[in-house]
Known about the structure:
The protein is α+β, with helices and mostly antiparallel strands. 51% of the residues lie in helices and 8% in strands. It contains eight helices and six strands. The strands form two sheets. Strands 3-2-1-6 form a four-stranded mixed beta sheet. Strands 4-5 form a two-stranded antiparallel sheet. Helix 1 packs across helix 3 (57-70), helix 5 packs antiparallel against helix 6 and helix 6 runs antiparallel to helix 7 (165-178).
Amino acid sequence: MEGFVLGPVKAVVPGHGGVEGASKLAGLFALFVLSPGHRVERDEIAAHVWPEGGASDNVISRQLSYLRESLGGRVGRMKSGACSMDLSDSRIDYLISREEAHRARGMNAFARFHGLCGAREKWSPGGPLQGLPGRTFERRRAELREEWGVLMIDCLAAAWEIREDEWLLKETEDFMERFPDNWAYGERIFTTDYWRQLRSPRRRPGK
């Protein structure tokens, strides 16, 4: 199975229907992907997928059954008020990005820069969990945006170390245009001294 939550939500399973868009099944899939151990409790399902209320045990069980069928049996049955999804044979953009970033952070600056940029490329410019409604998914989006911000800062820091100045200038400007009210994301890099050095003749691209 291939799965995507860092943009529009989608799961592709050969021979099965899969899920996509802002449907309740897509919301369920995203919730499993983002939960520790891919295990979700009944109340979490209700809060995320039925923010308007009305999620009886029968309604939740029916949706889990539809999801199980759509994803080739990868969704377990509800036991003791919780349910799990098996992603052991799956490629999920978020999980791949996290693993790539984790590996890259232990490398030298050059390899770290390219590894972190590769992890960042998994993220859609339009943001994660696109279209999923409700306050609980909005909180999840905020958490993911914060994680994206940390990844971006680490990319910028690695670029600074290896003097990728042309890339650094462009990405820094794009970054601050995207998050004009979140200076804290970049405060450990975007200092007066940083800008002075980066824009100096000795530090300009090609120098």
